[in-house]
Amino acid sequence: MPPVPREDPTVDSDSDVEFEDVPIQPPQPQQKIPSSLDQPSEHAESVSANIPWTPELHIPEQRETPVASGSDAERQLRGRLSIAIDRINTRQMKARIGMDAMNTQAGLTRYTSIQQLADDIEGTADMLWESATPSIQVEGLITLAGILERSLNTYNFDPIPTLTLLNKLDYYFIALMQGEHPVSHHKLPGASPDHPLVTQTQKVRIRSIAEITRSNLFAMMPGPREDDMNEDDDDADEKDDWEEPEMPVWMMQASKVYERVLMLLGDQGDPNETGGFNEYD
Predict the structure, then answer these.
(1) Side-chain half-sphere CA neighbours of 73 within 13 A
(2) Could you tell me which of 3, 69, 15, 65 has the C-alpha nearest to residue 191?
(3) Would you call 237 exposed, middle or buried from its count of C-beta atoms within 10 A (0-12, 13-18, 19+)?
(4) Exposure string (b/e) for 177-208, b if CB count within 10 Å is 16 or more?
(5) What does the CA dihedral 83, 85, 86, 91 come to, rounded to 10 degrees?
(6) In sequence order, what are the residues at sequence separation of 6 or more whose Cβ sits closer than 8 angstroms to the Cβ of residue 197?
(7) How do the domains of the chain map onto residue ranges?
(8) Residues 157, 220 contacting (CB under 8 angstroms)
(9) Burial of 29 (0-12, 13-18, 19+ CB in 10 A)
C-alpha cells in the first residue's frame, strides 16, 4: 500500500462553498437497462466461484490543471454538478415513493433499478474527476457516496452495478486523499504535501459513509435460498459428508467495499459522524 501522506494540522475544516444557479441545460438521459423493483436481480443468483469476479474500472483522463477559482469555467462546473445532483435526488425520491407524476419530463422519471441510479452517479463522479478541481471534487463525491449509501435499500440487491460503482468511488477517494492517480500513481493536479486535497473533517465524513455503506450492503446480501436449505435437510440422511455451499463470484468483491479508504484512514474519524453534504441534499 502506498505510504500515507502527512497531513497539515492547520487544515482541519471545510471551506464554505456557495454554488450559483447557472442556466445550463440538464444532461440528456442515458440509455438504461429496463428492470423492475419487484423482480429479483439476475446477478444475485449463485454461480461458480472458481473464477472470482473483478469489477471493471475505467478512470477518465483529467484536466492538466484545476479550473481557476472564480472563473466562468468554475461557475459552469458548479452549475453542472448542482443540476446533476438535483436530478439524481429527484429521481431517487420518486423511486422511494414508487410512482411518477403525470406528464413527467423525460429523464426525470423514477429510477426502477440500482443500475439506473449507479449510471447517473458514476457519470457525475466521472465529470468531477475529469475537472481535476479538488475544491469541488471532494465535496461532490462525498455527496454522491452519501446518496448511494441512503439509496441501497430502495432496490433489490444487484451486486454487479452496485459493487462496480463502489469500487470506483473507493479509488477516487483514495486518490484524492493520497494526491496521486489510482492507476498510474502520478501526482494529481493541485496536489501538494503542504496542502492536502482532502481535509481532516472530510476524511471523517468519508469514513462514516464507508462504514455505513458496508454495513447496509452486508445486511442486504441474500443468504442461502430456502429451497436449497430444504434440499439439504432432505439429503442429510443420504450423505455422510457435508459440502460447503457454492459462493457467488462477487462475494469476494463484496467483502472489499471501501477497503482502501478504511485501511488508509484507520481509526481516524468518528463512526457516529453523519455523512453527506447538505448543500446538495
Answers:
(1) 11
(2) 65
(3) exposed
(4) bbbbebeeeeebbbbeeeebbbbbebbbbbbb
(5) 120
(6) 134, 137, 138, 176, 177, 179, 188, 190, 191
(7) 67-222+246-265
(8) yes
(9) middle
Which sign does the torsion angle of CA 200, 204, 205, 207 carry? positive
Residue at grid coordinates 466562468 = 72
Q: Give the SS3 label for residue 258.
A: coil
Residue predicted with more confidence, 115 or 106: 115
pLDDT band at 195 (very low <50, low <70, confident <90, very high): confident
Question: What whole-number distance in Å separates Cα of residue 188 and Cα of residue 175?
Answer: 8
Instruction: Identify the bridge partners of residue 192 per DSSP, sorted by sequence position.
Output: 195
User: What does DSSP assign to residue 273?
Assistant: S
What pTM was computed for the model? 0.72
Q: Using an 8 Å Cβ cutoff, are 254 and 152 in contact? A: no
Phi, psi of 125 (to 5 degrees): -65, -40
